[in-house]
Design goal:
Function: Catalyzes the reversible isomerization-deamination of glucosamine 6-phosphate (GlcN6P) to form fructose 6-phosphate (Fru6P) and ammonium ion.
Helix content: 25-40%
Mean pLDDT: 95
CATH class: Alpha Beta
Number of domains: 1
Protein name: Glucosamine-6-phosphate deaminase
Oligomer: single chain
Shape: globular
Family: Belongs to the glucosamine/galactosamine-6-phosphate isomerase family. NagB subfamily.
Radius of gyration: 18 Å
Largest sheet: 7 strands, parallel
Strand order of the largest sheet: 1-10-9-6-2-3-5
Pathway: Amino-sugar metabolism; N-acetylneuraminate degradation; D-fructose 6-phosphate from N-acetylneuraminate: step 5/5
Low-confidence stretches: none
Structural class: alpha/beta
Enzyme class: hydrolase
Length: 269
C-alpha cells in the first residue's frame, strides 16, 4: 500500500487529483473511473474541475461508476448521490452523460438492477481507478462490518452508526434511508487502482486499523491491504495514529527523489 501523508485537506485533495489526472492521461482513449460521495472527495472533485477548466483535462472519454446510492431516493432528491455527483462534479466538466453510471435506488427490481450494474462494469473492461472514503466503523462504500469480503453489488442494510453518521445531511434521523445499493468488496477489489482518501482526526483510529491492523470483516477497508495497488492519501490528522508514520513519509521522499533522477536522466539523454 502506498501512503501519502499531506499537511492538510487542501494538499491531500491536490495530490489525489494529480494521481487521477495522471492515470486519465495514460489511458486517454478509455478510462473507467469509480467515484465516491460524502464530504471527503469534494476537494478532489473541485481540483479536477479546476484542472479541466484551466488546464484542459479532458473527461470526454471517461466512463464513471459510482459506488452506491440510497434506496428510495429519487435522482432529484437533494440527498441522493445522483444529485450530489451532478452538483459537485458532473455539471462542471465535459463528461458525456451516457457515460455516467450511478445505482438506481428507485429500481423496481433492485436485485436485477444490481446484477445489471455488475454487468455494465464488466462490459466496460472493469474500473481503472476507484475513489474510496472510509466510514467511522471502517467500512468502504456501504459494506458494513460483517460484509463478505467477496461480495458483489447488492442491497445492504445500513448499521445504526452509519445512519447516525449520515443524519447530518437530513432534517431528522428518521428521514435517513435504512438501505442502500452498494458495490461489493469483491467488486471494489477488482479495480486496477484503489485510491483511498481520509481526512480529520475522527478517522485516525479507524484508518490505522485499516492499514496496519489485521484484515477482518469488522473493518472492511482492511481488505485493501491485499490489493495489488492501493494508494492512500491522507492529511496529518488522519495519519496521527499510524505506528509507521515516519516510514511512510520516508518512502514518499525517496520515491520523489528517484522520480526526479529518472526525469533528469531522461532530459539529459
Amino acid at each position: 500500500m502506498e501512503i501519502y501523508i499531506k499537511k492538510n485537506y487542501e494538499e491531500m485533495s491536490r495530490k489525489a487529483a494529480e494521481i487521477v489526472a495522471e492515470e486519465m492521461r495514460k489511458r486517454k482513449n478509455h478510462f473507467v473511473l469509480g467515484l465516491a460521495t460524502g464530504s471527503t472527495p469534494i476537494g478532489l472533485y473541485k481540483e479536477l474541475i479546476r484542472m479541466h477548466q484551466e488546464e484542459g483535462l479532458d473527461f470526454s472519454r471517461v466512463i464513471t461508476f459510482n459506488l452506491d446510492e440510497y434506496c428510495g431516493l429519487s435522482p432529484d432528491h437533494e440527498q441522493s448521490y445522483h444529485y450530489f455527483m451532478f452538483e459537485n462534479f458532473f455539471k462542471h466538466i465535459n463528461i458525456d452523460k451516457k457515460n455516467i453510471h450511478i445505482p438506481d435506488g428507485m429500481a423496481r427490481d433492485l436485485d436485477a438492477h444490481c446484477r445489471e450494474y455488475e454487468k455494465m462494469i464488466a462490459d466496460n473492461r472493469g474500473i481503472d481507478l476507484q475513489v474510496l472514503g472510509i466510514g467511522g466503523d471502517g467500512h468502504i462504500a456501504f459494506n458494513e462490518p460483517g460484509s463478505s469480503l467477496s461480495s458483489r453489488t447488492r442491497v445492504k442494510t445500513l448499521t445504526q452508526q452509519t445512519v447516525e453518521d449520515n443524519s447530518r445531511f437530513f432534517k431528522t434521523i428518521e428521514e435517513v434511508p435504512k438501505y442502500a445499493i452498494t458495490m461489493g468488496i469483491g467488486t471494489i477489489m477488482e479495480a486496477k487502482i484503489c485510491l483511498l482518501l481520509v481526512n480529520g482526526d475522527k478517522k485516525a483510529e479507524v484508518f490505522a486499523k485499516a492499514v496496519e491492523g489485521p484484515m477482518t470483516t469488522e473493518v472492511t477497508a482492511s481488505m485493501l491491504q491485499t490489493h495489488p495497488r492501493t494508494i492512500a492519501v491522507v492529511d496529518e490528522e488522519a495519519a496521527a495514529k499510524l505506528k509507521r508514520k515516519d516510514y511512510y513519509k520516508h518512502v514518499e521522499k525517496m520515491a520523489g527523489l528517484l522520480k526526479k533522477r529518472v526525469n533528469e536522466k531522461g532530459k539529459n539523454g
